[in-house]
Design brief:
The complex is a heterodimer of chains A (306) and B (360). Chain A is an all-alpha fold. In chain A, helix 1 packs antiparallel against helix 12, helix 7 packs antiparallel against helix 12 and helix 12 runs antiparallel to helix 13. By secondary structure, chain B is an alpha/beta fold. Chain B folds into 2 domains: 131 residues, Rossmann fold, CATH 3.40.50.2300; 175 residues, Response regulator (Rossmann fold, 3-Layer(aba) Sandwich), CATH 3.40.50. In chain B, 40% of the residues lie in helices and 18% in strands. Chain B has 11 helices and 14 strands. In chain B, the strands form 3 sheets. In chain B, strands 2-1-3-4-5-11 form a 6-stranded parallel beta sheet, with helices on both faces. In chain B, strands 7-6-8-9-10-12 form a 6-stranded mixed beta sheet, with helices on both faces. A two-stranded antiparallel sheet of chain B has the order 13-14. In chain B, 53% of the residues are buried. Classes of the chains: A mainly alpha (306), B alpha/beta (360). The interface between A and B is large, with 55 and 52 residues.
Chain lengths: 306, 360
Amino acid sequence: MDLGAISLTLLIATLMAAATPILFAAIGEMIVEKAGVLNLGVEGMMITGAVCGFVVTIETGQPYLGFIAGAVGAAALSLLFAFLTQVTLANQVASGLALTLFGLGLSSLIGQSYVGLKPERTPDLFPESMADIPVLGPILFGHDLILYLGLLLVIAVWVFLKYARAGLVLRSVGENHDAAHALGYKVVRIRTLAIVFGGACAGMGGAYLSLVRVPQWTEGMTAGIGWIALALVVFASWKPGRVLLGAYLFGGLDQLQLRLQGAGVAIPVEYLAMSPYVITIVVLVILSAFRTGAPASLGRTFHASG
Amino acid sequence: MKLMKTLATAALALGMAGGAFADGHAKTKVGFVYVGPVGDGGWTYEHDIGRKAVEEAFGDKVETVYVENVAEGPDSERVMTQMALDGADLIFTTSFGYMDPTNNVAAKFPDVKFEHATGYKRLHPNVSTYSARFYEGRAVQGHIAGKMTKSNIIGYIASFPIPEVIRGINSAYLHASKVNPDVEFKIIWVYTWFDPAKEADAAKALIDQGADVVLQHTDSTAPQAAAEEAGGVITFGQASDMFEYAPFPRVTSIIDNWSPYYIARTKAVMDGTWESVDTWDGMPTGMVEMGEITDAVPEDVKAEAEAMIAAITSGEYHPFTGPINKQDGTPWLAEGEVSEDGPLLGMNFYIEGVTGEIPQ
């Protein structure tokens, strides 16, 4: 056993990067659910974002353009979901699942000729001299722009939901769409915007996966991260701060168990590997004793006839 | 919410396996069950090359179907059953975790031939097993790794604690420590065959802890990308050539060549000569090949590696030749003694010098 081999600084720096795709996807999905829509297509939108971001980065050599393309691509896909659920009033669960399957298929089609290519590296935001500061450098300054953007997004969403009038409107649509409609708010329009925002966020998360975290395109590379993001929203009981906490907790435990193994710690790694899920269950049990905070209209179809 | 999740998962699983079957039974129909996507660039990719070779070899006389991303365990049983019901004559199940499901389904369809990769159970006369002696390639990797490491720390991304994987670790360690007694193996079990993000994380964790060689027993090229990003770290292609990462970090690779076997077995079904067999081939028959050794490897090391490949191919050298002790120091093979296949097939112990425990 050699615990000294585990650098806490590197562990934290790595978990921040590892948690970023989930963070983006979960914060986007949270807004969607706050508006009363359950979109189970996160996985499909993430992988679409991953492939769109990758393809554009390869073609243009510009990672930032890639991130934009990832967000746009996934947002476009989410428009399909918005059309199905908001215009044709299709079932949200079925539409979301269809979106995931469609996204997985579409992405492998688009990505076929991009397997094995290497994307342009996304540059770090701060100069290397700052990232080299002992201990705090790698944690605070050793990342790319997108990671900081993710953190800003959490704060922005928190402010939006808590202090902005528009955020209040969004929440009212999610809590009681009939009442919101009676007050004159455009329920369908607001929900569509929320869905597109969720899609763009999932796409950013996906692009982060294919451009920074793994830097390559592989078919099916999200490997279930979208589903974890969905669970994370429930874990966080629809609160932005807890989404961040949950993303870092899930990501951190996973990184820690990999590193403990590398250091030769003889604890059964299965326990650490399953700990995020055990924690989720425990949190859900605790939450069930209080008000869960789930938007009251979550998953219900809205029609203006009421 | 919870119920919705359950429904969602069930519907997803159904949807994934539903498609891709066509009917019509004049041709010999060959089915393939894959654990990952055909585009993984590694394990499943090579099996799919074998499938395409079957189509090429027999043209109109054969029809192939495949289902990718099939989870190991009970769900795979449903996929195999569906294939058999759809008229498959021969079904290749290409991951270790399909072992019991393959035998269960084979019992229900005595007229359908089943071929299970990397397993050892043949409970019915219509089940064959086949595998490749990947440990031969691991020996070559171990030699190169031991010679080239500067930190003397070699990282190993292991998938599941099963004999096939443990054999690879032992073979690599044996040959690395032979040329470099100071070498240390850091082993991380990721409990997945295919999860690019997790494989990349494992590679990064190993590199952060000082490894300058990373071996992988998982299916994607993500560890190669992580090593390239880190710089100065050597990797080896796994299951497929992964040549897109050559000449560095990938310095050579183990390539699984299933095509000749798949063609021969399909032919046997057509001719009515198919029998239950246990095939375990390696470099001598070409089932295990080594990818080009790049110039990143020093001349002399490259020559030694090539000599080892030649010796294994000719049958002159067996990677598990004594003296070898088990991890606890008890003797396993005496001086010059060559291991039988039995202990290799069921290998559940580390050899002397490997640190840590095999997770149970």
